[in-house]
Amino acid sequence: TPFCISDSENGCGPPEWPEGSCPRTIGYWKNNVQKVLINNKTNGVQESRETLEAALDNVAAKSRIFQTGIDLQNPVELDNHTRLTDEEANRILQRKANDYPGDNTTMLARALQQNLATWLNLGSGKIGQHTYITLKDENGNALFEGTVMAALLEAEDIILNGGDLERAKEIGDQINNG
Length: 178
Hints:
The protein is mostly helical.
């Protein structure tokens, strides 16, 4: 139909995300989340509190792991669709030893960090979920080919099911770095 059909509780669901093509690096997200959401700065930032909160809301609506209550040592699929707290998002992105539960140097910690940054790129509209990408490993072999959303879901499958965590990290890293 040319109009929304919705129920009284759930409405029509979240709007389709724009198909941007300008991802930001992990450093961009680390700096903006810390400055805006943790330190309440408004000068020298590229994102507003509202845009970061909206991006985190969008991430929680689609991601199976980046929701409040994430266990950074043993991530499990969550279904609360409540965005990460400011502190949770910052803890994942910063990976600081004195603020990270367990070992912040593991490949799991690095995979979570890169993939949250990728989800923020998607949730803020800097990249689109239907954008088709081809990712290659350091030897030029195919790492992933498909849409950004399929890549993120594959990385989540790896994180949730104990696969090659370096592959999960590389998926996020390569998308974030264009």
